[in-house]
Write a structure and sequence with these properties.
Blueprint lengths: L13 E5 L4 H13 L2 E6 L19 E5 L5 H15 L4 E4 L14 H28 L4 E6 L12 H20 L5 E8 L5 H6 L3 H10 L8 H12 L10 E4 L7
Helix pairs in contact: 1-7, 2-3, 3-4
Bound molecules: nicotinamide-adenine-dinucleotide.
The site of nicotinamide-adenine-dinucleotide (NAD) has 27 residues, from helix 1 and helix 5.
Length: 257
């Protein structure tokens, strides 16, 4: 696939991915590198990003590792400033950093509610704002992909806080897309069903629970990290210039039922 063409002549486009060290974030990072992007990999520390070292996809790419805690506004501002100083540009931002919480409504702790919202929603909001401020001030095109969830759209027991945060992220996608529609800034989302990343392997370690999740999926298969990365790649591609404000389910058919 041809890389995004927003970057200046002869320059490779740059994608910034949060939560890049593992799971879906790592798969997206490698896919976008394969598509021709230089990479800003952002995560809680630069040390954990050593999981990307030696990846064949990154061999001929510039890789900038950035520490960011998306719960902290100063950390977000510093990360964007450092990324722009190191790489000169950000063409695509993928808001992937996230946290799950399994808790019934009546058992949910105040602090856990805040933490999930701060990572999944507020962090994505203010990181998007910080990068968009740069795009708007310099009249640059931009592209944001938010990693939502099928729980943005469906109800499930023990998943309320996570689902509310991802529902908010889906609505944030539409709001920002419309606010920036004439500024050449696109905002879209991807809504995965359960993918067996290391964190979800732990959450679904109970075989019965895992089987129940699988049974809900019409295709009777969990999407793979590469399935999700493929959808991100599609939305990051300039061939989808007319696509904005939408959330693409990658859900083995779940939301079609
Ligand atoms: N795996 C699934 O089944 C699934 C399904 C739907 C949506 N999603 C969403 O996709 C994204 C990635 O999922 P995953 O399974 O790879 O998750 P994961 O838990 O394995 O990885 C989350 C990443 O976010 C980073 N992170 C956590 N808190 C952070 C913070 N405060 N600041 C910066 N980075 C932080 C982690 O270090 C990690 O790299 C998440 O947003 C998740 O909600 C996952």
């Amino acid at each position: 696939m041809a890389a995004a063409t927003k970057a200046g002549a002869g320059k490779r486009p740059v994608a910034m991915i949060t939560g890049a060290h593992v799971g879906l974030g790592k798969a997206m990072t490698l896919r976008l590198a394969r598509d021709g992007f230089d990479i800003i990999a952002a995560d809680l520390s630069t040390e954990i990003l050593s999981s990307l070292d030696g990846a064949a996809e990154l061999k001929d790419r510039k890789l900038c590792k950035i520490a960011v805690d998306v719960r902290n506004h100063d950390s977000i501002k510093k990360a964007v400033a450092t990324a722009l100083k190191e790489m000169g540009q950000i063409d695509v931002l993928v808001n992937n950093a996230g946290r799950q919480l399994r808790a019934f409504v009546v058992d949910t702790k105040w602090e856990d509610y805040d933490d999930v919202m701060n990572i999944n929603l507020k962090g994505a909001y203010f990181l998007s704002a910080e990068v968009a401020r740069h795009w708007l001030a310099n009249k640059l095109p931009g592209n944001i992909v938010n990693i939502c969830s099928t729980h943005s759209f469906t109800g499930v027991p023990e998943g309320s806080v996570y689902g509310i945060s991802k529902g908010g992220l889906a609505q944030m996608t539409r709001m920002m897309a419309i606010e920036w529609a004439t500024d050449n800034i696109r905002v879209n989302g991807v809504a995965p069903a359960t993918v067996l990343t290391p964190s979800r392997e732990i959450l679904l370690s109970d075989p019965q629970r895992r089987q129940k999740m699988l049974e809900r999926l019409p295709q009777k298969r969990f999407p793979t990290p590469e399935d999700i990365a493929g959808a991100v790649s599609y939305l990051a591609n300039p061939e989808t210039l007319a696509v904005t404000g939408h959330i693409l389910p990658v859900d083995a058919g779940l939301l079609a039922v």
